[in-house]
Amino acid sequence: MSTLERPLVVVGDVHLSHDSGRDSGRALAAVVTAHPGAEIMLNGDIFNLSLDAPERAPLESLLAMLHAEPELRAAFRAHLTGAGRLTFLPGNHDAALADPELRARLLAWLELGDGVKLACSRWFERRGRIHVEHGHAYDPDNAPTHPLVPPTVTTEPLGVALTRRFLAPNRAFDFAHATEITPLEAIMRATKVFGLRMPLILARYLVTAGRFCRQAGWRPELAREREHGDALLRDAALELGLDAEILRTLDDDRPRPTHESFERAFFRLYFDRIVATAAVSSGLGIGALARSRSMLGLAALSVLYLVESQRRGRNRYEGLPVRRRREASRRVRDITNAELVIFGHTHVAEATAGYLNPGSFTYRGGEPRPYAFVGTDGVAERRFVG
C-alpha cells in the first residue's frame, strides 16, 4: 500500500454556478477547513462553465463565481498559508481549469505569492500509486479530443455542447443529468415540465441536436487539438513522473469521443428512432391519402426497425457511464501500475477493489455531501460533510 507525505482529500462535481446558492461553496470551505495540512484535490466539474454563453471568457466566468464565495476564499487562503496544498483538476464542465493562466489568476484573487502549494493540472494527478482523475476522458459523450487540450466552444463534446446550446438558454435543467433516458421518456417529462411550451422546447432541441450531429466528424480544428496534445505529452509525463508512452497508451486506450463521428452522434442522439418514427407517421398518412403502396411499405419497414431497435435495448445507455468508469479504472491500474484510482464525473458513488468514486458533492440525492479521504497510510474511504 502506498504511503503519502500528507493526507489526500478529493472533492468532485461541486458544480458552482452564477445562479446557484452558496451552500455548496460554504460546504466546500468546511471540508478545506477540516483538513489543515492535507492536499485538497478539486477533481473536476467544480464550476459549471458550460452554462455560459459561447462568447463569455471561461476564466473571467470562473473568477466571478469565486468572488461570490468569501468563505471559500478565506478557507483557501488559510489552507495555503499554512501547511496545506491545493490542486485543481479539469472536468468536462470546467475544462478551462487546464488553462496555463489559471494559477496566476487564482493567486491574484487569493492575494498570495507564487511560493504557495497551488497547482492546476491538465489531465490527472499521481500521488505515489494513487491516480486521481475526473473521469470524463472515458465518457465518449463528454470527452475532449485530447485530454491535455481544453476544447473550445466549436470543438467541445456532446454533453457540454447540449448544455451550453440547449439546456442553459431554455432553462431546461430538469434534463441536465438525464443522460440515460429514451426520446419517449424525454417527451413525457418535457410535457410535464413545460406544459403547452413543450412543442416549442422540443423543436429547439431537435434543431440544436441536429446541428450538432451535422457538425460531428473529424474536422481540421479537431486534428489541430490532437496534434497540440501529442506535442504536450512529454512535458506532461515529466510533471507526473511517468513515461510519455504511458500517457500515450492511456489516450489510445480510451473510447473515441462522440463528436468526432457523425455516425456515433446520430445514434447517440437517437436520431435513428426519431427518423423511423417520423417515417411511420408520414408513411401511414401519405400512404392512406394517396393510396401509395411504397409509402405504406416505408411505414411498415420503419415499424419493424423500431421493434428490432427496442428489442435490442429500450435504453441503449442505461448504466453505461458507471460501467465505463469502473472498467476504465481497471485499465488505468493495469497501464500505470496504480493501486487506487479515484474518479468522479458519474455522480454515482462506488467503491470496489482499487477503485473509489465518492459521488457528486452537490447532486447527492439527499445524503450528506461526500468526498474521498486517503490517509498517509494509503487507506482510502468515503467521508461526508453535513
Describe the structure.
This protein has helices spanning 23-34, 58-67, 70-81, 102-110, 158-170, 183-194, 198-215, 220-240, 244-253, 262-268, 271-290, 293-312, 320-336; strands at 8-11, 39-43, 85-89, 118-120, 124-127, 130-133, 340-342, 350-352, 355-357, 369-374, 380-385. The protein has a domain at 8-145 and 318-385: 4-Layer Sandwich (Purple Acid Phosphatase, chain A, domain 2), CATH 3.60.21. The protein has 386 residues and is of the alpha/beta class. β10 and β11 (380-385) form a beta hairpin. The chain has 13 helices and eleven strands.
Task: Summarize this entry quickly.
With 386 residues, the protein is α/β, with parallel strands linked by helices. It is built from 13 helices and eleven strands.
What's the architecture of the domain at 8-145 and 318-385, going by CATH? 4-Layer Sandwich
Poorly predicted sequence stretches spanning 5 or more consecutive residues: none
Per DSSP E runs of 2 or more residues, the count of β-strands stands at 11
Biggest sheet, in brief?
6 strands, mixed
Average pLDDT metric:
90
How widely separated are the two ends? Answer: 30 Å
Query: How are the strands of the biggest sheet laid out side by side?
Result: 4-3-2-1-10-11
SSE series: EHEHHEHEEEHHHHHHHHHEEEEE
| CATH uppermost class of the domain at 8-145 and 318-385 | Alpha Beta
CATH superfamily label of the domain at 8-145 and 318-385? Metallo-dependent phosphatases
Radius of gyration: 23 Å
Number of helices: 13
Please tell me what the overall shape is: elongated
CATH topology type of the domain at 8-145 and 318-385: Purple Acid Phosphatase, chain A, domain 2
Residues in β-strands, percent: 5-15%
Structural class: alpha/beta
Helix content: 40-55%
